């Protein structure tokens, strides 16, 4: 393990497990992502497992070589032991953003600050030629200084690619991704970011899957976000609503771009402690990767999030669509 000592297992992961360890020299806690392609392959029967692991390693190395970003979880080191890849990261004691919402929606000022940090992290990715393709509450960690760190890049793709594979977590998938159309992964990231903000402000998912057969997505497409909020009797900040309307535009051609998100009035009052230049001619960083979808994970999200205090309002509104 080099300079790291393993203390215990934190959680199981799709391709292995996440371990808690510490640096023998500094005694700092670290999270070690152990990825075993042989075990993962037998568990899911997916021929692209090795590629996804290589993408994860490549993207983390790329960001490290470019100096990193305050809102990207930094990889300290990577190594191979007993045939398994080990990626070493800073340990974030507060866990992921999804867990931070155990009690429902976040206050507007907290949601705004977190969202701004996440958007800056994704902007850094895009500026370096990488689209995330799995932006979600669970893929954002919160460190000791209450700073959001975007993580988990195994499904990332080049910003110059035109993708058609259905990847990511269902609640956050852009309509063009969910419906199996060709898509720009950078624009799809904007939709997913919009869903993250929506969930932070409301405490509930926007829809199960952004397809015409989903009643909530159908309502959004036909009547718009403001009417959706009105039907659910939700009081959402006016500027946040305006930004969400731009991000949660079902038509990707009409959807706003990430630089427009960061320039929006909703974020003007956020104190900027880091910035990133948005590149419109980002390099082709690597080949696209595919995902293994976990249906049970999606249902776990549903069962957990619909326990929101606004459940009595949300469910009848959905049922009436």
TrEMBL record:
Family annotation (InterPro entries): Kinase-like_dom_sf, Prot_kinase_dom
GO CC list: nucleus
Keywords carried by this UniProt record: ATP-binding, Kinase, Nucleotide-binding, Serine/threonine-protein kinase, Transferase
SUPFAM superfamilies documented for this protein: Protein kinase-like (PK-like)
Every Protein kinase domain range: 4-267
UniProt keyword Zinc, yes or no: no
Record GO terms (molecular function): ATP binding; protein serine/threonine kinase activity
Name of the protein in its database record: Protein kinase domain-containing protein
